[in-house]
Write a structure and sequence with these properties.
Elements lengths: L8 H14 L28 E7 L2 H9 L1 H7 L2 E7 L1 H14 L6 E5 L3 H6 L7 H5 L11 H7 L1 E2 L2 E2 L2 E6 L1 E6 H7 L16 H11 L3 E2 L2 E2 L11 H13 L5 E3 L6 E4 L4 H15 L10 H7 L7 E5 L2 H4 L17 E4 L14 E6 L7 H11 L2 H8 L14 H4 L2 H6 L3 H9 L3 H4 L6 H17 L4 H18 L14 H12 L1
Parallel strand pairs: 1-2, 1-3
Antiparallel strand pairs: 3-14, 4-5, 6-14, 7-12, 7-13, 8-9, 10-11
Helix pairs in contact: 2-15, 7-22, 10-11, 10-20, 20-21
Length: 497
Amino acid sequence: MGTRVGFSRRDFLKVTAGSAVALGLAGCVAPVVTPAQAPVGEGAPAMQVDAIRVLVVGDPFQFALEKVVNAFTEKTGIAVNLESLSYDALNARLATSFVSGSSDADVVTVDQMWNSQYFDNQWIVALDDFIKADSETNLNDFIPEVLYSLNTWRGHIVTLPIAAYGQGVMYRTDVFDALGLPPPPKTGADAGAWTWDAYMDQIRQIDGQTMDGAQMYGTVICGSQPVPVVHMYSQLGASYGARWFKQFPESPWDFTPTINSPENVAGLTAYKDLYAMSPDEAINYVWFDAGTRFSQGDIGMFFWWTPYFYLVKNNGYMTGEKSTIIDHYDVGMLPHAEGRDPLVSLGGWSLGIPSSTAKKQAAWEFIKWATGAEAQKQMALVPDYNYQFSDFARQSLYEDAEIREIYPYLDVQLELMRQGNGKIVRPPMPIYTSLEAVYGLNINQALSGSMSPEQALETTDTLFRNVLQGNFMLPYQFESYDDTLENTKRLISELAG
């Protein structure tokens, strides 16, 4: 347990803002307050509400949600004003609203990386009391690894998942057949020899081949900085054993950077090798660019977020036009590093309740509905865009025969979820976004050849220390929490009981 440091919140805000400007990271630093008084939601009696405002991000779940949201109104009588924003616009909009204390929305979409900032600053309320008072939540149906990675902070459930992502492999079945390559395994039990070395070897065999008149790239990577490249690279680095800090999320927290490690050098060297077998422009690819390039028919195999298991069926992002590879691709397990257990990055989007809203009970009703099994199944069955939603956080949906008929890869996806630990791969500590900006810039520099992997990680480590010290996180003197999967499972049991 840490001790409270002797400075005011106003002083802290001034310091964090100053360090952000000095590093060119203004707008990324998350002010921290002592978490002991962070609010817990109260299951207040239902009130008469005509409408609620819901802010969502422009990810695939938004398209499906828009198609079924009237079902919530029919069930509750509450109209929903749904507004969609881009990732950066949503983050900026929420931060501005929270800092000003204005009531901008009744339900907000939250990236797992924002949980610590939002909850420690009392910008969102915990959902514990709502869950305990509501027998319809069925908390035990959620995959524990998902709730742990996306939704818990300091022993509270602060959001619930509306779209949960793992990372897995997509590959061209016709290319593998033509070259006589063994397909990636579909279960962990068959993945003992499925290492990153084996993955790299297959990509080398594909790279430069001509298939149906197209010259093949072995793979495609996501290289755009600062944020997109961290999402893909951190998966590879973590598989190799790279960790960001000396000790987190286990207690006591010690944010001494360990980013410049032999394991991370090995991971970044491998990532640079993957870029050499990718399209040159991949260094500027954001999430959707990397994911949908596979649909163009000249990529052999790549790993990425599980929504691309269905997104690659389209010729471009959410176009509704079938891709040329729709009948010639499959998915498989993520590789692991030699001698290491599989470790999958978990991400996605969740819904939370701002402390500023006067409609907390109505907001909870919407969150319970939108993250519930019935609404999620309705979203999965929307036929638009070639059926484009299977990002389930609930176990029961993976077992649903009607859904499995449309999304045949769900067994693979579920196993990837169960191998996941989002708090190790991209640790959601209070100033994560500032560190991510530094990390992404330097990974990109390594890909471009401006720095060697060793130089990029040494620079990252130095800047990490500067940012952490400037934000009073090194040495860490606030309160720690033993944030383990086991403690999340105990919390689930307590709230579901």
